[in-house]
């Protein structure tokens, strides 16, 4: 399997490249933002040539920044995805597009199924939905959208590393307890994406939308307490508070729990429970605080 990974210098991208490099039967091309501008259709077309699968981990990820620069965010998260999809169609490649829970309104009270109506509540979500729609339109038989959420890992700033860093400087931390989601270890998601790519090429996984989040659910407060406990810190140092205490330019969904039925249909296991993967990440050192 010849795989092109875009956004290869990012948190998920680096995990994907590391994982694929461990499989000698696969050949990976790691394309960082400096090496490949996916907003350039000519560059995208050239980069995709010769690959069986493209995993697009490149994205505009500044949620708050997208509120002030929605057109720029949409160029990266939407228009550029159309360029990759067009290139994949021309070269006969599968595309795995990484998307987000932010395409939903975030006001549900039970897990969102893969076919739930979308209703983004902020500019970032709208920009990612444009990318999803491009994949569905241009690659109906070879396009895969994988929505993820609450991602953390060793490569890049994220909630887990932020909590561990703050633990060294503050006695108590106030963390919001009115947003629910599924903490997802980026390395576990990378494994799931590689399995999906293999199943797609083998004809076992139908194109469409999949939800790439860990099982179970918690709040940011619950996650922070679990992070502290897993690193030998006192979880009582974490205190619950509301989102109103931390206003942000972009609205955040109150409920980001996703359903996982499509994995069963593809004959693939769902991602493990979030707490188990958090412990795995801690044991391997992939959620250690940044130096």
Model description:
This protein is of the alpha/beta class. The chain has a domain at 2-152 and 184-215 and 258-270: 3-Layer(aba) Sandwich (Rossmann fold), CATH 3.40.50.720. It is 40% helix and 16% strand. It has helices at residues 11-21, 41-48, 63-68, 70-91, 123-138, 159-167, 186-201, 220-230, 261-265, 274-284; strands spanning 2-6, 27-31, 53-56, 94-100, 143-148, 151-152, 173-176, 180-181, 184-185, 208-211, 218-219, 238-241. The strands form 4 sheets. A 6-stranded parallel β-sheet has the order 2-1-3-4-5-10, sandwiched between helices. Strands 6-9 form a two-stranded parallel ribbon. Helix 5 links the parallel strand 4 (94-100) and strand 5. Helix 8 runs parallel beside helix 10. It starts with a strand and ends in a 7-residue tail after the last helix. The model has no long low-confidence stretch (mean pLDDT 96).
Top keywords for this entry?
291 residues, alpha/beta, Rossmann fold, two-stranded parallel sheet, 10 helices
The CATH topology of the domain at 2-152 and 184-215 and 258-270 = Rossmann fold
> How many distinct beta strands?
12
In whole angstroms, the N-to-C terminal distance is 36 Å
The secondary-structure element order is: EHEHEHHEHEEHEEEHEEHEHH
User: Which second-level CATH architecture of the domain at 2-152 and 184-215 and 258-270 applies?
Assistant: 3-Layer(aba) Sandwich
Radius of gyration of CA atoms, rounded to a whole number: 18 Å
Number of helices: 10
Spatial order of strands in the largest sheet: 2-1-3-4-5-10
């Amino acid at each position: 399997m010849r795989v092109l990974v875009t956004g290869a210098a990012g948190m998920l991208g680096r995990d994907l490249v590391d994982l694929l490099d461990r499989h000698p039967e696969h050949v990976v091309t790691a394309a960082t933002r400096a090496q490949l501008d996916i907003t350039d259709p000519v560059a995208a077309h050239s980069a995709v040539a010769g690959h069986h699968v493209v995993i697009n981990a490149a994205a505009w990820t500044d949620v708050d920044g997208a509120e002030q620069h929605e057109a720029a965010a949409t160029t990266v998260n939407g228009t550029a995805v159309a360029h990759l999809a067009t290139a994949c169609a021309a070269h006969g490649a599968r595309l795995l597009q990484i998307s987000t829970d932010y395409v939903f309104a975030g006001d549900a009270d039970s897990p969102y199924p893969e076919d739930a109506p979308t209703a983004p509540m902020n500019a970032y979500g709208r920009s990612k939905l444009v990318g999803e729609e491009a994949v569905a339109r241009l690659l109906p038989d070879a396009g895969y959208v994988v929505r993820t959420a609450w991602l953390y890992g060793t490569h890049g700033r994220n909630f887990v590393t932020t909590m561990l860093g703050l633990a060294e400087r503050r006695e108590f931390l106030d963390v919001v307890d009115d947003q629910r989601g599924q903490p997802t270890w980026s390395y576990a998601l990378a494994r799931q994406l590689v399995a999906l790519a293999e199943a797609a090429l083998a004809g076992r996984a139908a194109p469409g939308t999949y939800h790439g989040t860990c099982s179970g659910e918690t709040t940011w407060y619950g996650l922070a307490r679990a992070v502290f406990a897993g690193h030998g810190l006192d979880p009582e140092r974490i205190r619950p508070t509301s989102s109103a205490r931390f206003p942000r330019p972009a609205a955040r969904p109150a409920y980001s729990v996703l359903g996982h039925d499509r994995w069963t249909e593809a004959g693939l296991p769902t991602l493990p429970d979030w707490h188990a993967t958090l412990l795995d990440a801690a044991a391997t050192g992939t959620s250690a605080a940044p130096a």
